[in-house]
Amino acid sequence: MDNGFLFHIQVTELLQHFVNGLSIGSIYALIALGYTLVYGILKFINFAHGDILMMGTYAGLFIYNAYRPPEQGFLTIVIFLLAMIGAMITSSVLGVIVEKLAYKPLRKAPRLAPLLSAIGVSIILMNSAALFFGTKSRKFDYPFKNDPLNIAGTTITPNQLLIIFTALIIMTGLHIFIKYSRLGKAMRATSENPTSAALMGINVDYIISITFVIGSALAAIAGILISMEYTVYPTMGTLIGLKAFIAAVTGGIGNIYGAMFGGIILGLLETFGVVILGIPYGLKDSIAFSLLIIILLFKPQGLLGKITREKI
Asked: Facing residues of 156 across strands?
């Protein structure tokens, strides 16, 4: 084997791992945006976010399985899109209901109270899903042919392309919305100082509800995309929710660009950690939690976050 051929093998393998890491990192980024949006305004962690994702994914799965035709075709794609919209609506409505019932009454309580309330909501949603939908894992079938494509020696599936491009479009759209729209500016003002925002005529309760709608809808999209690679089950939101939270902390929780960056970084680290460090695939989850410890020890504000000091 000559050096040129060896170099070619190494480059194509690196590209392959990069694509795989980018794909899973895009999922983390979409979910992490929900954590960071809520934290940016309410300054607490919505630990029920992963379970809201799970509920939306179940809704999308039931719509898809109920109406999709037996053969793949254009109508299958239409039903898939309707299922995704149904999942987004379900998660958004659930997110707002959870905020109104479990978080709003605790806004002025000590920070531990809404945190415990979020954990309680998470357990209730998981058990409700197990009760009504059963504990059996279900597969979300591809609405299209997912035969791998070979691009310059790198294998990539249509679903990976869908994940990467969907995340790219959504993150670009969210950037434009937050930076330039009237509602986005109101969200930024509320994030900076809710009291001042209210004095300026901004309806803070409405902005908080919109924040939950956007974050929950993005989580539902991520849930549908990842369930085509894995399966749908009542506890599916727990681990991926925790990893997305780690991604948000890594990038700088409260910073939407940090959430995007942290998600991609975590996806790439997980993929390359298995390859370069030789960590068994079954233990790859330890990479995310090791990253969390390192970030908290050496850069607790996150890679793109800023140090904030509270007045006493």
From this structure: 149
The per-residue pLDDT for range 46-99, each reduced to its tens digit, is: 999 999 999 999 999 999 999 998 888 899 999 999 999 999 999 999 999 999
How far is it, in rounded angstroms, from Cα 218 to Cα 40? 16
CA distances, 168 to each of 23, 67, 165, 215 (Å): 11, 29, 5, 16
Tens-digit pLDDT profile for residues 271-299: 988 887 777 877 888 889 999 999 999 98
d(CA 197, CA 308): 19
Higher-pLDDT residue of 3, 87:
87
Q: How far, in Å, CA of 200 to CA of 248, rounded?
A: 30
Residue type, 312: I
- 3-state SS of 127-184 is HHHHHHHCCCCECCCCCCCCCCEEECCEEECHHHHHHHHHHHHHHHHHHHHHHHCHHH
Q: Locate 141 and state its tokens.
A: 């079938």
- For residue 114, CA distances in Å to 109, 120, 121, 276 come to 8, 10, 10, 40
